[in-house]
């Protein structure tokens, strides 16, 4: 009973999983002794006590086998086979019902033999295995393991004597297992499981002195910190009879382990080296059978920990005192090894740096360290540089007096700037320098650390980088502007789609046509929502344009363009004429609206740049049998060869931006694109002082394709019933212009003038004084809001109502333009009925008040 209580108390203090089976085996044997004593006192009247006794005896044997499995693992089939055999033997004994003091039946004899064989199988192999293992263990573990194996061997001998007496003398003589073990065997169990301190000290005396001598030698001759830590961990485990040990630094580096793997070693020292944070406090606690000793050295903190195993005694005051003494000695050795190793590593790291690193003494002013990069940068070897004064060696030129630099260095402990230094071969290099001041233990300046980097190439490239950055920013701004315009262009075609569907709806279509119109409007509405999602994916340089080539009468196109620019020509006293001769009845293959736009750009440029009193003529010239050239000839100042090479480029105005002539340089670039889209060519011939000739060359239309195209009119009422009005419609999209021509045809009393550029809009507005201007916000040369501003600032056009029309549907944009003086703001695509109501409202107002 005493053995059981001592064993249970010892295990409950640590709850060590590795010694759990050994404790269970000893407790089972103690229980066997108690139950057998009760059975003898009761003269065997209780068979259940006998059965329980035998089962517990078998359980003690199997628990000892499991303890062996903890020390030296068994093969799984062997382990499970032993468990099955123990359960079978226990069941057979219970069924046979062994008496405490009576003759045995044959079945009971067989049960005794099976029981004995199973128990012996569970005990003999572990006893032999652990006995052989004890020879290579430290003295404490070896002595404890020998005590345990001798104790179980004694139980084995007692069992054999008891079984032999039972078989020879008859009856059961198990009472021998109570009297003899109580006197001879139980003390061995106590010594093996939890030996007293004095006994552990006695066991250790034989190897303590050799360990100390070896450790003293290591303190003096340790090759490096790693070797010192590895041997220290091994000797710490041997010193206190532990199964494993670990040495780690405070930053979490495990220096050495002995007897355990590194993951288990980290679990042992984790909370000793982990900062005291909420996360660290939430980690699991280390095992209870671990003894840790802090290592406080001058260069850092650390920890040494030892872990008890199945054969390790509980750590008491003696073990703790020994380990702390050992840790104190180890600290000194680690300080020396760590200091030497850190110095070596620092030198290696400084040599690996990409920057030149130089140190010099404040007191003597001479160089004390010169790394490998400094050798490569300056050309001086370390042997040549050490002991030299750095300013004289490198002929350093500082950005300000050296005394001021040193004053700032002493005040702030650092200085940064750029130096000019000279290499060994005489090259002058620009250096980015960072200096740091190190003080001694008393706080006096001691050493200056210089970190220098060659920036010669970087400074030379700085100008190129700045130029490239400015160019990239300009390109980005141009791209952003173009994207904004393209986002407008994506929504503008929807104006034509929805507008034409509205026109069809107003002309009393049939029911089946109503369904088609509704489908168009529904699909267009869906497309409108999709367009809003793909505005940022505008095709900037795709070059895809839609052109509708058809026979176009040359005479009508030329006359319409001349009529539109005539007011501007008269204002500048320019003589404007045409010379078509035999080509007046010719037709050319072109897109009518885009041909008008291209020719109008050439005529407008001729009028603007030829100068007051010049002559501008439109002439048609056959070019072979299949092509026709339309020339715009002026008597202006002409163009040099260099200027002609820059024509037709976007935003290129050839210096006109410094004059009072307004423009953006987009007209000719747009003209070239339009003409090439119509499978034609555009060019120029000019000489300085002799004028210029801009020409467009297109294919002639075959005579069989000539057809008259009449203008369709919608008789919504007699033209004479309403007063005649003039509307200037400004839009850069030809499809939208075509739609508006059809819409305005529903108001025969309105004379429609169209324009595709902001500059031309201002000229037409001043000349024709329209009753209304419908103005697009995105135009190729001048933004619509700028056109509105100029119209409002000119007394001649200030009272003309201006309706803005744009695909930008934001309230901020609408409020801004209304504040700027717009009469109304329409968002594309606009319904035809809404547009007509706006026309009727504006044009029916008798007096238009300027805003």
Question: Based on helices, strands and strand pairing, what is the structural class?
Answer: alpha+beta
Indicate the percent of residues in helices. 40-55%
What's the N-to-C terminus distance? 113 Å
Q: How many strands appear in the DSSP assignment?
A: 21
Shape field: elongated
Tell me about the largest β-sheet. Answer: 5 strands, antiparallel
Low-confidence stretches: 275-286, 533-544, 707-720, 847-851
Q: How many helices in DSSP terms?
A: 28
Spatial order of the strands forming the largest sheet: 6-5-9-8-7
Q: What is the overall pLDDT average?
A: 75
> Strand portion, in percent?
15-25%
User: What's the gyration radius in Å?
Assistant: 54 Å
List keywords for this structure.
disordered C terminus, 851 residues, single chain, five-stranded mixed sheet, elongated, five-stranded antiparallel sheet, alpha+beta
